[in-house]
Design a protein that fits this description.
alpha/beta; eight-stranded mixed sheet; 7 helices; about 25% strand; globular
Length: about 220
């Protein structure tokens, strides 16, 4: 494995200019620099959003941006970002969330010594810095195959888009048969398919995603 593989970060954008600014800052300021930063704006009607994207792209050549004239829904945007990525590893980032500065550096290190297909640190509440347990993907290394599936299925129904919060091996993600398809439980099926290619690892001792919890928010699943 190469020491510093290219990592693609796909940022989903829609009408949140100031949150988006913070999200992009959190990516360009990662301690890991070999990044491809993709920003896909899904038909924002707020002109400031696109101006912010252009502003960052002019200053940082790692940024590639895409403007869609109409909002084609979150599933389209999730899939579009993966299809246009070229990195060995990939992670999504919502425009109202942030990555801790060492997030990518930490996650890359987890792929070196184990058969890991998805890696992450603990997601925390951006306001309180307390762990957001429902976003925690269970560890699976060392478990028998049946137990891996059981552990993920038992946990996943606490939140139906857990896979969103991790660095994923891109080639394996693109091979998934049910990857972001419009079928019932596609997000659950995606996780189970990824398990066929390797293990999930999360370091609960380090901060990963800084997750913004909004008043009155329910599930943040992109499929809900």
């Amino acid at each position: 494995m190469e020491d510093f593989p290219l990592v693609s970060i796909g940022i989903l954008s829609y009408n949140r200019p100031q949150d988006l600014r913070q999200a992009i800052f959190s990516v360009i300021n990662q301690t890991y620099s070999n990044l491809e930063i993709l920003v896909s704006d899904n038909g924002s009607i707020n002109g400031e959003t696109r101006e912010i994207i252009k502003e960052f792209a002019e200053k940082d050549k790692r940024i590639r941006f895409f403007f869609h004239e109409i909002n084609r829904g979150p599933i389209f945007n999730f899939e579009f970002l993966v299809k246009n990525s070229t990195g060995k590893y990939f992670a999504w980032l919502a425009d109202d969330d942030l990555f801790a500065p060492n997030y990518v550096t930490d996650c890359i290190s987890y792929f070196f010594s184990q058969n890991i297909i998805l890696a992450s640190n603990m997601p925390v509440d951006a306001a309180t810095k307390q762990p957001v347990e429902m976003k925690n993907i269970p560890n699976t290394p060392g478990l028998k195959k049946k137990e891996k599936y059981k552990r993920v299925v038992c946990h996943i129904f606490t939140d139906l888009n857990l896979f969103y919060y991790g660095l994923i091996e891109t080639a394996s993600l693109k091979k998934c048969r049910f990857y972001l398809k419009k079928v019932f439980g596609a997000d659950v099926l995606l996780l189970l398919e990824l398990l066929n290619s390797g293990d999930f690892f999360i370091n609960t001792e380090k901060t990963g995603l800084l997750y913004q919890i909004h008043p009155g928010q329910g599930s943040s699943s992109p499929f809900g």
